[in-house]
Design a protein that fits this description.
Helix content is 35%, strand content 18%. A hairpin with a 5-residue loop joins strand 11 and strand 12. The chain is an alpha/beta fold. Helix 3 packs across helix 11 and helix 4 crosses helix 17. The protein is built from 19 helices and 24 strands. The longest helix has 21 residues.
Length: 560
């Protein structure tokens, strides 16, 4: 059996211009990064954005989300790609919109993020590693800001910034736990002002969020200038714009704001742009990529990170809220193997048929169906098929889905590409034709603490929230500063609906702890930290880096 990277390397890609012609692009609409990758020109991006402002000219938006992740795998990106290809196979003009992979998971525990089997986006090695340099540009912009802040302290501190209150972190797009807490400025007087500082992974940076939520350079600069970086000694918030260097930071991001165009193995156009994590950031590809896709496709298949309690909720309550868009249908990706793990089966025993574990583990899927119902969007389950799945197990999942008021469609995209997703494509197309009433989980004018309580009780099924005192104090401070209307971006484990990664299945009736909050005033949301979640991951004992190599011809192996 071929690995994912071997399948991708054997595929014959089309020149990206040929793929672009499927959505009516011409050569001048693109800036080419070699033969198979391109960025939209500013002119084309602006043209498509203007078209997408008219809701009657937009395609149907389809959100792909998932059940709670397990070590058995769910395959959300695989299903997203397969569905995009499947829609093309049934005669629909489909376009795919995905996030860019972070180097952290590629060398850490997860591997690549380009789909799998015969449902992939390519060139997968390029996309998974450096791609067009967007994340590197975001890293550089983030760290330029950090350098400018420390330089301001060194050069006299005209603004009176209290170094102990500086909240802006440096970043790197790797899992490096040793950088979570650092001391900067050590040495002589000319080496800077000594202070405690921190690193986060680049995809959790507020700059990443801002790039993904900004539609223009003007908006990008406005958001960067509004970033809260510290307080003065008299406790006045300091915004980055006060350093008068916003233009320099934006200059590093002028290309990173433009969506990238690539293709699937079946040559379906795919915009891949922006890569915020969903467990510690807002988990969606850029609004620019989504709007451009909506303007040139009749059906746009996009995905939000991790499960419905994280990425899908943030897609709705942050991305849709800010931009006046909404999905016409949602797909929840499930696997028989993951359901059995939520039912208590060990990973080593997942290949054996176990209908009783499916009965028990389906509680997790049922919880996510309920979660999506909060938004009024019609839902279908995509059963991402593994070779060990039995007919009895698949039939049981389909019955349980019907009992939960939904439908489960078998998806064989991994093994068959778009051909294995035509049934799912037909079902999704039918869902998109139905009238639905999209709604947000909470109103913007609700108190910040009440928004968190709403998330905890309606999406995470907790009984109540327990706030640490510093979190409540900061929430009140943010409201007093005029940020009370911002949505919440919850940072919590992806491995449970709850805050505790060990609570699998569908936990209920527990206490949800919020230990801290942080204002992302430029991005336009408040991050709440629950449990022991970190914004700088660490590497596992046996990282994926152990398997990756490259030969003298530049051929990469072991990436996934």
């Amino acid at each position: 059996m071929l690995s994912d990277i071997e399948i991708a390397q054997k595929n014959e890609m089309l020149p990206i211009l040929e793929v672009a012609k499927k959505i009516d692009f011409v050569q001048d609409d693109l800036d080419f990064y070699g033969t198979y990758k391109a960025k939209l020109s500013f002119k084309k991006m602006n043209e498509l954005q203007a078209k997408a402002q008219d809701s009657s000219k937009r395609g149907k938006l389809i959100l792909v989300t998932a059940m709670t992740p397990t070590a058995a795998g769910e395959g959300k990106s695989t299903v997203t790609v397969a569905l995009g290809d499947g829609l093309r196979r049934i005669g629909k003009k489909s376009v795919i919109a995905l996030r860019e992979p972070s180097l952290g998971p590629c060398f850490g525990v997860k591997g690549g993020a380009c789909g799998g089997g015969y449902a992939q986006v390519v060139p997968m090695e390029d996309i998974n590693l450096h791609f067009t340099g967007d994340i590197h540009a975001i890293t550089a912009a983030n760290n330029l800001m950090a350098a400018l802040i420390d330089n301001h302290l060194q050069q006299g501190n005209e603004l009176g910034i209290d170094p102990r209150t500086i909240s802006w972190k440096r970043c790197v797009d790797l899992n490096d736990r040793a950088l979570r807490n650092v001391i900067v400025g050590l040495g002589t007087r000319v080496d800077g002002v000594p202070r405690e500082s921190h690193f986060q992974i680049s995809v959790a940076s507020e700059i990443m969020a801002i790039v993904c939520l900004s539609k223009s350079i003007t908006e990008l600069k406005e958001r960067i200038s509004k970033i809260t970086i510290a307080e003065t000694y008299d406790k006045r918030p300091v915004l980055f714009g006060e350093l008068k260097c916003t233009g320099a930071v934006a200059a590093l991001l002028k290309d990173a704001i433009r969506p990238n165009l690539v293709q699937t193995l079946e040559h379906t156009p795919a915009f891949i742009h922006g890569g915020p994590f969903a467990n510690i950031a807002h988990g969606c590809n850029s609004i620019n990529a989504t709007l451009c896709a909506l303007a040139c496709g009749d059906y746009v298949v996009t995905e939000a990170g991790f499960a419905a309690d994280l990425g899908a909720e943030k897609f709705m309550d942050i991305k849709c809220r800010m931009n006046g868009i909404s999905p016409s249908a949602a797909v929840i990706v499930v696997t028989i193997r993951a359901i059995k793990m939520h039912g208590g089966v060990a990973k080593a025993d997942l290949s054996a048929e176990n209908t009783s574990a499916i009965e028990k583990g389906f509680a997790n899927v049922r919880a996510h169906i309920k979660n999506m119902a909060n938004f009024g969007v019609p839902v279908v389950l995509a059963v991402n098929k593994f070779v060990t799945d039995t007919d009895a197990e698949i039939s049981l999942v389909q019955k349980l889905a019907e009992d939960a008021g939904s439908k489960a469609i078998l998806c064989e995209g991994w093994g068959k590409g778009g051909e294995g997703a035509t049934a799912l494509a037909e079902c999704v197309s039918e869902l998109c034709s139905k009238t639905s009433e999209f709604k947000l989980l909470y109103p913007s004018d609700m108190k910040l603490s009440d928004k968190i309580k709403t998330l905890a009780t309606k999406m995470y099924h907790a009984e109540r929230v327990e706030f640490e005192s510093k979190a409540l104090k900061k929430l009140k401070q943010y409201e007093d500063q005029g940020y009370g209307n911002l949505p919440i971006c919850m940072a919590k484990t992806q491995n449970s609906i709850s805050h505790d990664k060990n609570l699998v299945g569908a936990p209920e009736g527990y206490v949800f702890p919020v230990r801290d909050v942080q204002l992302y005033s430029g991005a336009g949301f408040v991050v709440a930290f629950a449990g022991d979640i970190m914004d700088m991951p660490g590497l596992p004992k046996a990282p994926s880096a152990l398997n990756i190599d490259v030969d003298d011809n530049g051929i990469i192996t072991g990436l996934f």
